[in-house]
Amino acid sequence: MAPWPKTVVLCIDGLDPSYIEATPTPAIDDLAAAGYYAVGQAVVPTVTNVNNVSIVTGTPPNEHGITANYVLDPRTGRETYMESAEFLCRPTILDRARRRGLSTAALTAKQKLLDLVGQGADYALCAEAPDAEMVQKLGPPPDIYAPDLNLWLLKALALLLREQDPDLVYCATTDGMMHRYAPESLESQAHIRGLDVALGHIAEDAPRHRILLTADHGMSGKEWGVDLEKALASGGIVARAIPIIKDRYVVHHGNLGGAAYVHLADLGALDQACALLSEIPGVEEVHPRQQAADRFQLMAERIGDLLVLADAYTVFGTFEAVRVPVRLRSHGSRHEGAIPILAYGPEAGGDYKRNYELTAGLCLG
After folding, report:
1. Contact 344/36 with Cβ under 8 angstroms?
2. Are the folds of 7-218+337-358 and 220-330 the same?
3. 40: which strand partners?
4. Which tens digits make up the pLDDT trace of 242-300?
């Protein structure tokens, strides 16, 4: 017999606490009042793959091995999306649950995320390519960039809980609405109200379940873009700057984010590169490999020679000049680190500071 309690883990992509503060959320408020709520911190770099895997394994990146959405292997020169379970160095909570004889499920908005976090799921659903039975019951899902996609996914979660009642579910939404709209906008408030209503229905339909809710990162408005490769080239330094946020969903953020790994053609230029980058407006921190690994709990062999972090208003990418004005909402830096942490239901107590601490003890022993 499965041990009590059954658990739903929800990662609401891009749910900066300011979204909750800007919109009435009675369901979240009720769950928080009856359980635990705090504003905690995401893992740096504050991007989707790094943090979702931290949550779904209950470990930091120096243990699970995911350090970016997109990486360059300096040994081969190959660049690739870090979106396959083959990169994982730790089992997921779904893996751990299934090994104990528990039933498991994973639901995601994006296919790339299901490929990464769905290891160990008895039932897997991606809103981009749902199974025919779910479509028959709920209708086809909206487009991946549509405002109502997350609501469709949470309806699928509610239906799954009613019909199959798995012991452990991991569900991850998408942050398209957060990239497009600030918390105070009418569009954003409608989206947050919809999520809150859906969460309230889930709590009502599964009153004896433990609900653990957090986010992978926050979100903020950006005003400047910096091209790190051009900046280094101006000083005679040959380098490749990898946008850590880069993934296949470019409409969200245009592969522009607040963190980048820099790979130098000549490590002898390391000190010069650090000094040059530190002088660029918008660059807030420059960390050599081991310093970055130690400070941010990253796997050293899977990051660049340098980790560069932007200030609150800057993103890194490829531009026509070293520094140009931009207008978008994105993430990746320390400034998108604040995230909500909510725990409700049986055995949901704790004092959580990081998003992955919510799940660190699940299905152990």
Report:
1. yes
2. no
3. 339
4. 999 887 655 454 689 999 999 999 999 999 999 999 999 999 999 999 999 999 999 99
Instruction: For the sheet with 259-264, list strands across it.
Output: 239-243, 259-264, 306-310, 283-288
Q: What is the third-level CATH fold of 7-218+337-358?
A: Alkaline Phosphatase, subunit A (3.40.720)
Tokens 């390391």, residue located = 270
- CATH fold for the domain made of 220-330: Gyrase A; domain 2 (3.30.1360)
Is the predicted pLDDT of residue 220 greater than 60, yes or no? yes
Is residue 3 pLDDT above 70, yes or no? Answer: no
- pLDDT at position 108 is 97
The first and second tokens of residue 65, run together, are 């091995």
Give the pLDDT confidence score for residue 251 in this predicted structure: 47
Domain ranges of the chain: 7-218+337-358, 220-330
The residue among 338, 316, 337 whose CA lies nearest residue 328 is 316
pLDDT score of 365 more than 80: no
Contact (Cβ atoms closer than 8 angstroms) between residue 213 and residue 195: no
CA distance 27 to 16: 17
User: Measured at the alpha carbon of residue 297, what is the angle toward residues 295 and 300, in degrees to the nearest 5?
Assistant: 95
Global confidence as pTM: 0.95
Q: How far is CA 7 from CA 64, 104, 118, 323, in A?
A: 22, 10, 16, 47
Q: Taking 90 as the threshold, does the pLDDT of residue 240 lie above it?
A: yes
Which helix H or strand E contains 323, and what residues bound it? strand 323-330
- Helix and strand numbers, DSSP H then E, in the chain: 14, 16
- Contacts for 184 with CB less than 8 Å, ≥ 6 apart: 22
Instruction: Please provide residue 262's backbone torsions phi and psi, each rounded to the nearest 5 degrees.
Output: -110, 125
DSSP β-bridge partners for residue 107: 125, 171
* Digit-coded pLDDT (tens) for 108-145: 999 989 999 999 999 999 999 999 999 999 999 999 88
